[in-house]
Amino acid sequence: MGHGLSSFSASELDKFIEDYLRPDTTFGADVKLAIGVVCDFLKERCFQDAAHPVRVSKVVKGGSSGKGTALKGRSDADLVVFLNNLTSFEEQLNRRGEFIKEIKKQLYKVQRERHFGVKFAVQSSWWPNARSLSFKLSAPHLHQEVEFDVLPAFDVLGHVSIYSVPDPQIYANLIRKCIYLKKEGEFSTCFTELQRNFLKQRPTKVKSLIRLVKYWYHLEKLGKPLPPQYALELLTVYAWERGSGFVDFDTAQGFRTVLELVTKYKLLRIYWTMYYDFEHQEVSNYLHRQLMRISPVILDPADPRKNVAGSNPKGWQRLAGEAAAWLWYLCFKYRDGSPVCSWDVPTEVDVPKQENHFFRNFCLFFLFLFLFIFWRASYLAWVS
């Protein structure tokens, strides 16, 4: 089973992560170099021959590479290309295909230039309005191929810093548009920088725990349909936040807590209020509806429209069964044979009580009506 994770004791998990899961410096340098080549291509060359002027406002590195949670040997990178030509969520949905077609055309064109020195292996998509373009990049100075997914997106956030919190109206517009278009989580790419910042600012050891959970997830997947990997990443952050919160912690305890949460998937109701909350009425109403859905519910911290737990109860059931079996393995016992205890973490985040605004407004209306009638009666009695 892989590198034999199940045969490592709890005390050896940190060494296991260091030896087998953390990318080495050569790998990191390769990926960084490859991303630089593709970013330069997208910004400076890709759209210069387009029929209409196309402006790239920014290219953002997402996925595991952007979040700092990549596994050793898995060289994949998501690049979100924000285009000034896309001015709404609807335009992103309707026009992304034409921009992907142009990127694909330019990749083939650049292949024919001998001096470029980089090879792109483009994967064809059967969809005319595909969401992304996938390709592999190889070059003489790289030790291995690097896989890319390039996704065109509407730049709804503009400049984003590590402390950026979007205007709630952006989320209100997103909710309205997704309901109108009947597209849930379709525009998560617009919030890539927030997703990246949410994970990137976590302590190094939390990212190591995420790597361990992802490695375990891939051991169990092996062609089977399981819940999205991103759900496990967020579940790991949640377990650490609620169970420890310290920069240094026992990795085995964190790992056990995550697996126990997986076994309790039917009770999971998790969300964060870092980028959106219950202050804006329209967003609040929508959040209450989202959090009333059948569990598991794990809302994307950057996009309230997206329940990253997915809609695959059989996948969760399968993963929960595997997690329950693993709780008896050697990696949850210390060298002296004593068992690892999990952190005390709730399966649900409290949801603030929803105000009945209709009833409140109804009462206020009658209060003002009563005061007006009382004032008028008093006034008429006084003048008479």
Can you characterise this structure?
With 384 residues, this protein is α/β, with parallel strands linked by helices. It has twelve helices and eight strands. It has helices spanning 13-21, 25-45, 63-67, 89-111, 168-181, 192-200, 204-221, 229-243, 251-263, 281-290, 313-326, 357-383; strands spanning 56-62, 76-83, 119-122, 133-138, 146-154, 269-270, 297-300, 303-307. The strands form two sheets. A five-stranded mixed beta sheet has the order 1-2-5-4-3. The protein has a three-stranded mixed beta sheet with strand order 6-7-8. Strand 7 and strand 8 (303-307) form a beta hairpin. Helix 9 packs across helix 11 (313-326). The mean pLDDT is 88.
Strand content: 5-15%
The secondary-structure element order is: HHEHEHEEEHHHHHEHEEHH
Count of alpha and pi helical runs: 12
Overall geometric form: flat
> What is the averaged pLDDT score?
88
Distance between the termini: 96 Å
Flag low-confidence runs.
none
Largest sheet: 5 strands, mixed
DSSP, total strands: 8
Strand order of the largest sheet: 1-2-5-4-3
Structural class: alpha/beta
Radius of gyration (Å): 25 Å
Bin the helical content.
40-55%
Could you give a quick summary of the protein structure above?
The chain has 12 helices and 8 strands. It has 384 residues and is an alpha/beta fold. Strands 1-2-5-4-3 form a 5-stranded mixed sheet.
